Amino acid sequence: MNRLKWLIVIALFQFSTAAAMAEPVATDIVVRAKARDAKFIGSSIGGALVRIRDADSGALLAEGLTEGSTGNTDKIMRQPHSRYGSIAEGAAAFKATLEIDEPVFLTVEVVAPAIKRQARVLSQTQTWLVPGKPIDGDGLIVEVPGMVVDLLSPQTHQAVPAADSPFEIKANVVMMCGCALTPDGLWDGSKMEVAAIVRKDGELYKTVPLKIQDTSTFSAPLEAKSPGVYQLLVYAYDPRTGNTGVDQTSFIVQ
């Protein structure tokens, strides 16, 4: 009986020693950011910032931008998707190689579009990564909701003479991947709700619907003959998906 106990102790010691001496294994993980109802977020709009953390400690294990194209429009937007079928086909991605000697539970954060601060959205998910078992191919696809709205006119803190009223509200609206809105196009701007909520001296003044005039450009005239400080919030909303984007500014009517 004593001999059996010793054999068990020795086996446990050998097992724990082998585990302690396990060599880290280089294991790849590919992360892609996909705009809701659109394509992948890549170099053309500054990429998506990806942060990979140890979920338990919060330690940052890898960080970088997705790089590459928005992907194949037909595969992503027009063709039916099959199980295990790829839709990425070389689209923008961030690839990290982690040296791990045991399975690690990861939190993957995606901030996109990285260079458009007023439109940035944080999306995240979690996954296990096992040594020698890569997450590659299309990789881990994280969806990023929203739209990018850029107010073009009026300019921030612009002083507008009351005599010039009405003047133009103009905004540029694109999908989070930078894909353009066009009348009756794949991303049909005529079916998007775009409007300006106008406040004067802190009080609601009016809401002005904007119409698409050209590729990704929406505009409408604004009557503002009363002097004061005006705040302008332009939103874009797609009732079919719930996608929403906003930009804001202020201007002065003299």
TrEMBL record:
The positions making up the signal sequence are: 1-22
Keywords from the named record: Signal
Q: How is this protein named in the record? A: DUF4198 domain-containing protein
